[in-house]
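step: validate -> pass
step: tokenize input -> pass
step: predict -> running
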Amino acid sequence: MKKEILFVRYGGLSPMKQDHYVPDSDPDKTFHNPPRKNGLYAMIKGYEDLFLLGATCHPNHISGKFSWLKDDEGNLIKDSNDIRTYSEQRNKNHDYTPEFKRFLKKRGIKENQIWSSKINDAKIDCPDDVECEVCPLKEKCDEIGNMPHYLTVLKKPKSFSYNGEIWHHLGEQLKPHEIIEKCGSWVKTEFDIFVKALDKDRHSTMKDGHKNEWYEKSDFNTRLHNPYKRTFGVTYSKDHLEVFIEKL
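step: predict -> pass
step: emit ->
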């Protein structure tokens, strides 16, 4: 891992109020809840995990990561079978039609930028102790569930450099005195300590890969210089490599 690391951010680079912040004392605090009320999430360039964008993928979200995809007349494009080809072998829609691919190419949009959302992103807090069929919110829930999806476009990310204090999930790779603060699964460290932890994590994951059954059956052993890059038969999650920066 090179010492100079670039980060990518989908959306703006200004710190944002984090609506999903909860204190450590909250029993519902999760792995991805932000460690501070204000700041911004980012990913290491080359280690992006788009799964992390799922909670903020609606075009109306304040982060501005997505926009609606419109046709040449300015109309929203419904997410439907009209834009996909059907595979009898797989018994499902699995690829975009040639016409839609040409449309994306004309717009300079890659296929992996295409997502979809409902126009109304309203959500319902379903009560845990009531069955769906007798729930008083069933009608509203069904109404939202049956709304059509329309295609959205993931905007291109912004790349930036940073070398200040940084929050990350790599505390297991560090000694207690190297950690400035903790919040849930997050730890805040100096940047050089983060780089050290990232390098340790990469080597630890690489060792784990060598124990994988694919190691003896393929050229996995010669290709596994970076376990987070796509390799033969093995894929490792990168969601723990997200970072949080309070201010650029």
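step: describe -> The first strand starts at residue 6 and ends at 9.
step: cleanup -> pass
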